[in-house]
Amino acid sequence: MSVLSSPWLNHIICGDARRMEAVPDASVQLVVTSPPYNVAKDYSDHDDDLSLEEYVDLLNAVWRECYRVLVPGGRLCVNVANTDRKPYLSLVSLIDEQLRTSGQTWLHRGHIIWDKGACLSGNTKVFVRERSTRAVACCRLSSLHDGGSWNGLDVEGYNATGQTCWLPISGLWEVEVTQGLALTFTEGCAVVATPEHRFMRKDGLLALAKDLQVGDRLRRAFSTPAYQGSIPTAFASCDLAWALGLYLAEGSISQETESGVRTLRYHLHSNEYGWVERLRGVWEAFGGTITSHKAGNKLVVSVSGYVACAVVGEFISGRTSHDKLPRNDVIGAPLEWRQAFLQGWLDGDGYLNEKAQRWEGNITGVNGRLMPTLHALARSVGYRLQHGAGWATAEPNGQRHPVVRWKLYLRESSHHNSVAWDALQIKEITTDNARFFDLALADEPHLFVLADGLVSHNSAGVSTAWGSFGRSTNPTLRDVHEYITVWSKDRLKLADGSETGVTGNQFVAWTRSIWRPEELIGELQKKIAAKLADARKRDKDDAWIAESIARAVWSQDTVPGETVWEMTTASSVDHPAPFPIELPKRVIELYTRPADVVLDPFMGSGSTAIAAVQMGRHYVGYELSIEYCQLAERRLAELRKAPETTGDNGK
């Protein structure tokens, strides 16, 4: 019977890969797999809590079976991460030694390094909590790094159940990156990241920043972890919080006079006169003197008093609409205080649209840092803020000036056109230069949340033990990569010399030990083609064409000669140790021909099978877990329904 008509082909067998009786001798051209790491990973309905000796015996038995089923010249490609720190366990070295001393004729072809590093710009804001005092703040990554204050902090994380939590920060490093991508969302918030940084899409899958497109929706955690918050008793009044929020919207503080006098002013509408008594009650408690003056529809409330101005400075930096910002004490306050502060800002700058259950308004003045802070503040109390650029007409001269138009939603709408609170939709993608930082987390699943709710992934989140940087007693290396160790059976040459489908550019890049994705080359080719087409349309001369193409080439984010495999990590596909489909796809295309057979003895949720189908190869897999067998079959069924879908979810 022909191998290609065998009943085991294109099936995932729920069984033990140490005994692959269904697969005949010399019937498989490639084995590609990522074995269970046996390091506190929960593999569902079977026991992987083995001793090191048992784990080694398990792998040895599987490698013997792989050798039996491989054709001469067939490849074994094993993706593995090193693990443990006390002592450090190099799994790739362990597996290499196993194969080298197995008594079978395994020939080592080398290691491929899968680079997993990714970074965010220093302006990125996150919620952090001091581990000892539990005080919460909203900080920029650059501030945490430059102040050396990240040690002892937890950052807002995102767990497997979709809930926010606190995760320990294990490191924060500045990384030299030439250019990043700025993602701007329809809500008005934005983030700048390296092209390789990973975000969670709304469907739960992870994607590289460079693979995202306008219109894509990314996962948003719409509430922060519940925290009590604290504030000194002297400032605990919610009326004070409201007055400070109103100042953020409508206030200013004069320059200090020679006699040391400063005046706090609220610039209100005459129909808001009822607020004067409330403001009087707040500021007289701090020794302030309150006066008010009406002129037409304008009302100015003045508060004279050094202490009152100092209290404002405790919670809000800046003096005018161009530079006012809430300080971290606002974010760290109790929930009721934050709500009162936000209500004061809403009363001053907006109006309530009761039918739509939202507040709306305009902000005049250029203050680029205010809105990101307000996004974080709104999210901390369970609201959703949206903003965008607009124009307003000034009276009485009718002159137009730029404003920020905003809407604050009190609850999620059921209207079919409304944006879901658990997603942020990409409006624009541009390039941007910035300082970039790599935030490392100590705990799984290495998902953390930005202040605006965007769920981000720390792919290289492993623990470190730096201690004091200047007097380190145990500098610990930080893995930001995994390995693929490549071996062949009996001989170096592949069994078949026919066409693989690999292009010349792919072959040049993929036969290096550290790979970069071919997408960069493809993007460059598309860019050049577009420039040429535009030049022909506009009848441009050769000099213009040459300059235009040169700009396209030099603006492309490529590094000639580098060979790191940088690919999207796997998604949360209900599997504890996923790897991306791009990884087996590249190995399959490099080492097999169409209609060849690919085996994965640790099939997991089916990445290898999906990659084989996409590349026009046959597959066979073994998996002990019934749950993961069913999950893999469901994913394959979905793929067959939509053969154009490439997918990037994990093993």
Could you characterize what this model shows?
- This protein is of the alpha+beta class.
- The protein has three domains: 3-114 and 492-509 and 575-641, Rossmann fold (3-Layer(aba) Sandwich); 120-221 and 424-471, Hedgehog/Intein (Hint) domain (Endonuclease - Pi-scei, Chain A, domain 1, Beta Complex); 238-401, Homing endonucleases (Endonuclease I-creI, Roll), CATH 3.10.28.10.
- Helices cover 26% and strands 28% of the residues.
- The chain is built from 15 helices and 33 strands.
- Strands 1-33-32-2-3-31-6 form a seven-stranded mixed sheet, with helices on both faces. The chain has a six-stranded antiparallel sheet with strand order 7-28-11-10-8-9.
- A hairpin with a 5-residue loop joins strand 29 (447-449) and strand 30.
- The protein starts with 10 loop residues before the first strand and ends in a 10-residue tail after the last helix.
Number of H- or I-type helical stretches: 15
Coarse structural class: alpha+beta
Strand content: 25-35%
Calculate the terminal CA-CA distance, rounded to whole Å.
32 Å
Find the count of extended strands (DSSP E, 2+ residues).
Answer: 33
Low-confidence stretches: 39-47, 460-471, 516-522, 550-578, 645-651
* CATH class division of the largest domain: Alpha Beta
Helix content: 25-40%
Spatial ordering of strands, largest sheet? 1-33-32-2-3-31-6
CATH superfamily of the largest domain: Vaccinia Virus protein VP39
- What spatial form do the alpha-carbon principal axes imply? elongated
* Most strands sheet: 7 strands, mixed
Number of domains: 3
Radius of gyration: 30 Å
